[in-house]
């Protein structure tokens, strides 16, 4: 769930920094890897009865050069698993973060997609898929044509904004923007009804900000003030590029800041947005004028082409009430400026170089990225963003071997079985709640690789008109999306492009999705050993499954409906357990003075904890009848599993992005994802013989699942 507020889709996926929190002294644990006769093997019970086969880290699928053997695995396991990689890796100048897994796989996928698109753009084939993706990419790559078009592609939008003088013209301007998914003021999409998860409704959401979060407008620390100053200067330069005079620009900047700050004040925080009950306010079409009387709703829905939409939920009543107050407070000239800014701001990436460069210059302030990504990389992204399930088709043919799908299915089945066992053994859950949890687990489905039925894209693509193509693609998607309102939920539809290196759990469909993009080394390899694959992709599978039972997912029942299925006492105990995780991660400090938000990251941290526990047990189960166990450069199979967990998350990122993500990302930085979840797992301390009281074996551990 969740989408990025930017038009061309800046993706914030899953990544991390480096820094430390080590206190424990106690017995100093082994600094290097265990030898085959060392203490860690002696404690690995299931392995002691069968013969040992000696092998190497490389042979099992781990990277010996990524290790920092001087680091103490009981103090900072992430450093032990990744320190060598961190020392030798530079963040590529066109990235704000880089990881051994996500980054490297993305790089490979990107090269493959480039090859596919270059071939398609030159092809004379009549194949619909080839023609469309080829033309889209070619138009994006044709920088000369983009320069020649200048600001013409946005002229109709700017002129609609300029005409705002009353409610009618305001509705006309807003719909002109929204039709192309330029979301000013608020945004809208079709979503399953939280309380009737088989049916789609329209969801109206808070929005309309140019900075990444409401807090950027409202915080008073020096960093926030500095970013606001730079944002003002950026708005000024962009409006000048769009043809505003020096005098007009001055007023425009203050109008933009006023409107956005007022919207920020009535916006929910990211933590508030983790409460699914709070996000569900099914007021329907008739409730909209009661909430925001001065917005011309009928004109709006009619102009979008969906006059009959009735099923409407808003994510926040106070936001739309606040928006309504603002509509009467601010005069038409302010709205003209605000809307014009959002056109320029959101369409900038498809405009001439001057806009692209200025847009990137401000992105740099936020992310610390040194260079803009090469044009071809941006064009691969743009094509993937607009025509994901067309571009995926040749990609899947080339890159997705059937073996990873079968392996993933085996892992999902085993991990799911392990969660069932966990439920059976829990001492804190009453029989009724346990039964409902088991029913939810049983009903949980999964999709692997790519969709069973490809989407079509019935929009025109002209190899010479990039901006027009982008707008046509957006307009088509909005129609497709809103066309679902009032209809049955399509359980086979994917929310993620198959080449993406990512995965998700959808609480309303109660299913997990693992795109082909992530089923690759170092997450999964047919050549890697079982413990290593389970520490990689197995942990990801366990993570997604646990999302069904984290603090947020657990509020949805087996059928995807929002509703409480917990008996009061089990619910109380569950809350106490998640509170422990909240406090644990809230204590982590990725940068001096920058703490993680334990409440914002709670769901992801609970999922990591469950994920690593489930994957570990699944690996043990899959290896329980092994005729011999492998010892790789002295590391036992248990240790190999944990090294695989660590090495799947080796990561480097700029200070700026660390700061930004601490505010907006529900995921903790990789270092804490690894150390936080492993330090809660007794099997980890056992595998590396970590004495109680060391940072990786604290006296107080947090176990939810
Ligand atoms: Zn997650």
Question: Can you summarize this structure?
Answer:
The chain is mainly α. It has helices spanning 39-43, 57-60, 77-88, 102-122, 128-141, 143-149, 155-162, 167-179, 215-218, 222-241, 246-266, 276-279, 284-291, 297-304, 317-329, 332-347, 353-367, 375-386, 388-399, 402-425, 431-443, 466-482, 530-547, 568-586, 602-622, 637-647, 655-664, 670-678, 682-687; strands spanning 52-55, 97-99, 186-193, 196-206, 312-314, 445-449, 504-506, 511-515, 629-632, 651-653.
User: Mean pLDDT, as a whole number?
Assistant: 92
Oligomer: single chain
The gross shape turns out to be globular
Structural class call reads mainly alpha
- By DSSP, the count of extended strands is 10
Count the DSSP helices: 29
First-residue to last-residue Cα separation:
23 Å
For the largest beta sheet, what order do the strands appear in spatially? 3-4-5
User: How does the major sheet shape up?
Assistant: 3 strands, mixed
**Uncertain runs:** 1-47
User: Percent helix among the residues?
Assistant: 40-55%
Indicate the proportion of strand residues.
5-15%
The hetero compounds bound to this protein are: zinc ion
CA-atom Rg in angstroms: 26 Å
């Amino acid at each position: 769930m969740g989408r990025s507020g930017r038009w061309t889709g800046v993706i914030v996926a899953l990544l991390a920094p480096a820094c430390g929190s080590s206190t424990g002294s106690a017995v100093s644990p082994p600094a290097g890897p265990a030898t085959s006769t060392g203490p860690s093997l002696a404690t690995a019970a299931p392995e002691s009865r069968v013969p040992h086969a000696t092998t190497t880290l490389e042979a099992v699928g781990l990277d010996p050069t990524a290790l920092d053997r001087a680091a103490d695995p009981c103090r900072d396991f992430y450093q032990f698993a990744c320190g060598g990689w961190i020392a030798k890796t530079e963040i590529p100048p066109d990235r704000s973060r880089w990881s051994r897994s996500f980054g490297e796989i993305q790089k490979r996928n990107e090269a493959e997609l480039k090859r596919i698109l270059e071939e398609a753009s030159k092809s004379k084939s009549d194949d619909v898929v080839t023609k469309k993706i080829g033309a889209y990419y070619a138009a994006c790559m044709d920088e000369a044509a983009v320069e020649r078009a200048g600001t013409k592609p946005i002229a109709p939008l700017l002129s609609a904004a300029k005409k705002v003088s009353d409610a009618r013209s305001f509705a006309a301007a807003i719909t002109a923007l929204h039709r192309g998914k330029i979301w000013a003021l608020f945004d809208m999409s079709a979503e399953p009804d939280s309380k009737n998860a088989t049916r789609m409704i329209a969801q109206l959401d808070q929005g309309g900000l140019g900075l990444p979060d409401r807090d950027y407008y409202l915080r008073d620390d020096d960093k926030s003030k500095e970013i606001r100053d730079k944002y003002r200067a950026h708005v000024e330069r962009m409006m000048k590029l769009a043809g505003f005079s020096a005098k007009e620009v001055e007023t425009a900047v203050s109008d933009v800041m006023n409107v956005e700050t007022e919207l920020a004040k009535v916006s929910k925080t990211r933590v508030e947005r983790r409460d699914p009950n709070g996000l569900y306010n099914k007021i329907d079409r008739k409730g909209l004028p009661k909430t925001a009387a001065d917005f011309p709703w009928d004109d709006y829905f009619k102009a979008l082409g969906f006059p009959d939409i009735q099923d409407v939920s808003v994510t926040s009543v106070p936001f739309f009430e606040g928006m309504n107050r603002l509509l009467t407070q601010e005069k038409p000239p302010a709205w003209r400026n605000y809307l014009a800014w959002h056109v320029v701001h959101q369409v900038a990436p498809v405009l001439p170089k001057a806009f692209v460069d200025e847009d990137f210059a401000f992105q740099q302030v936020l992310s610390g990225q040194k260079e803009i990504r090469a044009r071809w990389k941006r064009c691969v992204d743009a094509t993937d963003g607009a025509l994901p399930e067309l571009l995926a088709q040749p990609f899947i043919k080339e890159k997705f071997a059937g073996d990873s799908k079968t392996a993933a299915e085996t892992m999902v089945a085993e991990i799911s079985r392990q969660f069932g066992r966990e439920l059976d053994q829990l001492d804190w859950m009453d029989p009724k709640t346990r039964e409902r949890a088991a029913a939810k687990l049983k009903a949980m489905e999964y999709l692997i690789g790519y969709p069973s039925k490809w989407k079509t894209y019935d929009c025109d693509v002209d190899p010479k008109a990039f901006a027009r193509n982008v707008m046509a693609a957006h307009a088509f998607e909005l129609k497709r999306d809103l066309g679902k309102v009032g209809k049955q939920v399509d359980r086979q539809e994917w929310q993620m492009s198959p080449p993406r290196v990512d995965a998700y759990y959808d609480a309303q469909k109660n299913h997990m999705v693992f795109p082909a993009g992530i089923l690759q080394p170092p997450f999964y390899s047919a050549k890697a050993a079982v413990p290593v694959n389970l520490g990689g992709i197995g942990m990801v599978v366990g993570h997604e499954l646990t999302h069904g039972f984290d603090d947020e997912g657990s509020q949805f029942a087996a059928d995807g409906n929002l509703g409480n299925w917990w008996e009061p006492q089990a619910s109380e105990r569950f809350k106490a357990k998640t509170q422990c995780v909240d406090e644990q991660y809230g204590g982590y400090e990725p940068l001096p003075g920058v703490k993680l938000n334990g409440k914002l990251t709670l769901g992801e941290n609970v999922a990591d904890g469950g994920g690593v526990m489930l994957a570990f047990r699944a690996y043990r189960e899959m290896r329980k009848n092994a005729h011999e166990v492998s010892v790789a450069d002295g590391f036992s199979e248990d240790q190999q599993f944990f090294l695989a967990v660590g090495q799947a998350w080796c990561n480097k990122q700029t200070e700026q992005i660390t700061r930004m993500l601490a505010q907006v990302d529900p995921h903790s930085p990789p270092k804490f994802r690894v150390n936080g979840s492993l330090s809660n797992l007794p099997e980890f301390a056992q595998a590396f013989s970590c004495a109680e009281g060391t940072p990786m074996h604290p006296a107080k551990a947090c176990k939810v699942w």
